[in-house]
Amino acid sequence: MAIRQRKKDRSNDRSNNQKNPPPSNQAPTPKDSEEVTAWETISRHPAVLGLVFLGIPYAIYCSYFFLLLQKPHWISNDLLRPAVSMADERQVLIVGTMSSGTTQITHELHDILNLEVGHEDSDTNWKFVRDGSVSWFHGIRFFPAFSEHRRKVPVKLCRVANQFITSLNHPYAANPGLFTPPQYEVSHLHPNFSKYWFKECVRIMWTEYGCASRGDCPTPFRKTLIQTRKPTKIVESLVAKYCKQDGSDTIMGMPPTSLIEFLDALFPEHNFASLENTCTSIMANYVLLYYNMLLDAYDRGDVDGMYHIEDVTLCDVAQFSGLLNKTDTVFGPNYEFVSELCNGDNAPGLIGQHRNVINQGRVKIFDLQDKDLEKRMLKLHKRMGY
Predict the structure, then answer these.
(1) How confident is the model over 375-384, as pLDDT tens digits?
(2) Nearest of 165, 175, 151, 368 to residue 269 by alpha carbon
(3) Residues 6+ apart with CB under 8 A from 306
(4) For residue 334, what pLDDT band results from cuts at 50, 70 and 90?
(5) What is the mean pLDDT of the chain?
(6) C-alpha to C-alpha distance for 281 and 241, rounded to whole angstroms
(7) Minimal CA–CA distance to 124: which of 173, 183, 83, 172?
(8) CA-based nearest residue to 236, from 221, 249, 219
(9) 267: Cα separation from own chain's centroid
(10) pTM for the model
(11) How many Å from the N-terminal Cα to the C-terminal Cα in the chain?
(12) Phi/psi of residue 29, each to 5°?
């Protein structure tokens, strides 16, 4: 029995060895091992993953704008709209202060009239703004040209602009990229980016500030318009935007320091920092200075028209912009589309006020508590035609 058992055990061992042969002593060749390791290392490297998932899509994104806006003739001269350089004429520039409804009119011109209009942007190399711009800061074109005491305005503006942009997340103030392509092509990652940004900002401010009165604005527009809103409504909206603290109902708080410094640089003849009154007084003075300078330009003939955002239809704005006159339309297909829409049964009505609504009745101004300021605001109302 013992012998038979040993034979059986040896038989089972042979059977198990056949099923599970011992591991081979031959290791994979060094060449195979290196190839697998190299491929795994490369394919899993963060730089490669970043290139695949970020770099390539970003390159495609940039190529799209480059081809359509700068080199459309490489694709088709018949199907695509021609490129528009910074020196080429656009259809319309509409200027109006912050909180006057510039965001609303931009969206309606784009969404309903199918126009390539940018909000606070004029760079046709990388943005679809070939028909024009709607902007508050482009209003500096119509400010008085630099006199002796205003010659430091560009430098002072650019010194405080970066802080204003950063602290209030306000990209539309003295940002050179919103006017023209930069001459100093420096990446945000460049160690001297802030230095070159400042140089670019000063260059643009010298070029744009007061250029209408000098007659040398670099980007021409067929029509320039002033958009107005009741000044007291603008002041209420600005107070709600910049001065309400923690959602409180008071309007006694002061605006951020960066905004006051920016306004001081923008209007050097008026010292906003010296005002001891409320935020309402500061905002009212800003609105007075801004619109009186634009209205002076209108009286000089530097501006083609003015309209109240509360009282016009989108087709009224199109007419003021020259889009319902074939000879005044810069890009012919725009005339065909806009005239057909505005002369049809489905012409758009009064312009709504549902975008970028800030105040929503939180701030009401009944008394400025400054009789001289109140008189000046009333005079501005009348000058605007209210």
Answers:
(1) 999 999 999 9
(2) 151
(3) 225, 226, 227, 228, 295, 298, 384, 385
(4) very high
(5) 81
(6) 15
(7) 83
(8) 249
(9) 23
(10) 0.82
(11) 121
(12) -65, 150
